[in-house]
Amino acid sequence: MKDGIAHTLRALHHGERQLARDLLAVAERHAEEHEVHHVATDLADWSREHADRLAEHAAGEGLRLDDDTPEPRSGEGPEGLLLLHDLRALHLAATENSLHWEMLAQAAQATRDARLLELASACHPQTLRQTRWTDTLIKQVSPQVLTSL
Amino acid sequence: MKADRIADPWGARAPYRRHDAWPSRVDAYLAEGVEPGAVQKWVGAASLLHSGGDAMDIAVVDGRMAGVRGRAVDRVSRGRLGPKDLFGWQANASPDRLTRPLVRRDGHLVETDWDTAMELVAARTRELLDERGPGSIGFYTSGQLFLEEYYTLAVLARAGIGTNHLDGNTRLCTATAAEALKASFGCDGQPGSFDDLDHADVIALFGHNMAETQTVQWTRVLDRLAGGDPPRLLCVDPRPTQVARHATLHLAPRVGTNMALLNALLHETIRHDRVDHDFVEAHTVGFEELAERVASCTPEWAADICDVPAARITEAAELVGTTDALLSTVLQGVYQAHQATAAAVQVNNLHLIRGMLGRPGAGVLQMNGQPSAQNTRECGADGDLPGFRNWQNDSHVADLAKVWNVEPSTIPHFAPPTHAMQMFRYAEQGSIAMLWISGTNPAVSLPELARVRALLAQERLFTVVQDLFLTETARLADVVLPAATWGEKTGTITNADRTVHLCEKAVEPPGEARADLDIFLDFARRMDFRDKDGGPLIGWQEPEEAFEAWKRCSAGRPCDYTGLSYDRLRDAGGIQWPCTEANPRGTERLYTDGITWAHPDHCESYGKDLETGAAVDPVEYRSLNPDGKAVLRAAAYVEPHEMPDDRHPFQLSTGRTLYHFHTRTKTGRVAQLDEAAPEVWVEACAADAMRLGLGEGDLVRVATPRGALEARLRVTDIRPGLLFVPFHYGYWDTKEGDGPDGGGPGRAANETTITDWDPASKQPLFKTAAAALTLVARADGRYAPAPTTTASAPSDPDSVPATAGGQQAYATQNSEPGGTP
Ligand code: SF4
Questions:
Q1: B438 within 8 A of B153, measured Cβ to Cβ
Q2: What pTM was computed for the model?
Q3: Among B142, B167, B171, B172, which is best to mutate for testing ligand 1, by the most ligand atoms less than 8 A from CB?
Q4: Residue B819 above 60 pLDDT?
Q5: Which residues of A touch B611 (CB under 8 A)?
Q6: What is the DSSP code string of B268-296?
Q7: What is the ipTM of this complex?
């Protein structure tokens, strides 16, 4: 298996397991929020299943992924991987900002705060374009980087 | 009648009235001592050294080329030829043509036989496919091969090797034309026709020095200017080009500000309601957003940015806004800048909101530079799939897979085909380990040459170069394959207005040189590429068979060739695609009856964010444009990335001169053309020169943060604050051969340019760098070696002797129909 793909499998396996744990933790912490509690619990199952299927796939290719697999240190490794790591980080950061814009816009609507709403509507589309840009670049660069290592 | 066609590149006038047919004039040039009666045969071809597609016949005497003659009946040129057509063919017979393959042994290129060279290439390919996969192999091709060759290359790269890395040097040239057409009309394909020049009332040339790039079509404009009801010209160009000199209105904006100027033109058009609302309603989406985006783009706002008086912008808006027949043309001044696609799209927008499309005299020409750039695009040898198929549309990929009889998964379509600049980055970073370069010279033509040379010279990169001469790039190769050229092989080329011409073989190539098609086929045979039933993936041997195969691939697509054949092209001359059995005379204009290829199911592209290049996804496109209309895409002006400062107070633009093509590999080997412009020069305006105490002919140094070059100064009427350097000059005819002499001053314009590109078209920025200008040595009575006939004309005409070709440049011009030289 290509090193780049192995690296990404490990990272995603770790990520899915972590997301499953996080979903469960959120479900516990907000047990009173019924929708969150139930749906988060269901979604945790998806991630657990993803992690299992990843492990199974990797095993077929001779790569062991289990609970002890250390998370690959992000940003480590060859130049290309670093670029992908950074693009991913940018994408997540932009997504976070996008959600914050959305929260502000919702709040502005609720409070009839026209100025705040205008601000959010003016800026939020550009935040979304930022996420589309990082997504486009990741789509372009990853096949080359992950298959060349 | 004879004329010195170096001194007068456009030749004699044949005035004609608006809506009349352009009179013919047959131009011819025969080698010294060859009488017309001695010509044994005339063989049909079309221009190779620009995108005009001028039809001509090659004179053959005793198996050698002896001259050329225009073809009066051809729709494109009506018999005319430009200086590069008249004289350029002589380069074919240069004594330093490559005649045998070369391979690198112990650091040196040594001659070998074809079998050894090709086996080496095939062995390395197999090794890489085994060890690292198809993504480790890239192909960089040209805009000067034939359709049959690109198509074969596209099949072998995309379905044979299975790599996504195939692009042409058309990336430097017409990538923006294609991208802008895709953005506006959903699909590539030139909307207008050169015949619109006969009918237009206003011709607006945006960054298009037609007088030097398409000399024959400029002759047509001159003939109309000399006749009744002449057109009015709007010229947007920072240089005093011949177009500017003949223009009703010339705007010379600061480079990198086209977007602001165009938004102001749109602003005025909308403010005065010069809008064809019925057309907008019936055929476009996005008008509201466009109107909103340009609402604040007043002429006063743009005047500051562009450094052009607001009153001139208002006048320009009136010119394009009030005419009944507007023809716009667009080229490098727009395409090689940082907002290339965004600005080119605004020209489309202007036509769309004014309803200036699809009728005689009302159209857009997003121009090409190279003779077969259009073929590179339609055959999928650049960043698109063959036949303008959409890589994001699974049914298009499946359809292509059916044509090739392979599984759809064989054709990489998980990401857009890799553009050239990215391919070179992959080669630099090591993930591309083999680069096959055909018919182009990146060691001179790409930006930031120091980087390109280092990248190509890497030990770990296996480079194959296929060319006529030992170019700067070939000197860095591992394998050099000697190619045949125009006149020595057969194939078709399609010009900038979709006219397809057949170029036939007139003479044998020198030595063991082979047609590019034969080289690709030899490789395909060695690699034994198979379709899904085990048959040969590429089942053709001859050019005509390749053409027939391409016809099947083009069937039902916008660039439909099914009504064409070699025989028809031989008889009829140039024919414009689409051409089908139902429509055998071809198609003069696209979009005469609505927008045909923008429907979500048919479009070649869903578009891109013009400012970021982010892909628009299919769902988004469908909701934006469910009925397949033209899309009015708006964008805001953004300042160029590199602006002048104290250390680099000038802006620097690079470009061409009339007498040369590309890196001069051909034109530099032709006496008439070489002597007209023998060396690199730099242009600055009189005020800037005076301020710095510089004068005509002084040896100066032009430096940017990337590198520097030395050249003699030509003082012209160029816009103040701007320097211009022609990009043709490299090193093959210097002592070093492949780069500046050990740390000495460079000669190539691209020593100074920046590695940066338009986000949507990925076309590099050759026109906006910040630069410093300093004196190296006084002129001492010498002049800059720049032509006086063109944009490089001196501001004081008496300061420099006029460019002339003398006896050797006398060519005949015959206005009698059917006349021979
Ligand atoms: S030199 Fe002109 S024709 Fe050649 S690639 Fe550049 S723009 Fe195109």
A1: yes
A2: 0.93
A3: B172
A4: no
A5: 129
A6: HHHHTT---HHHHHHHEE-HHHHHHHHTT
A7: 0.75
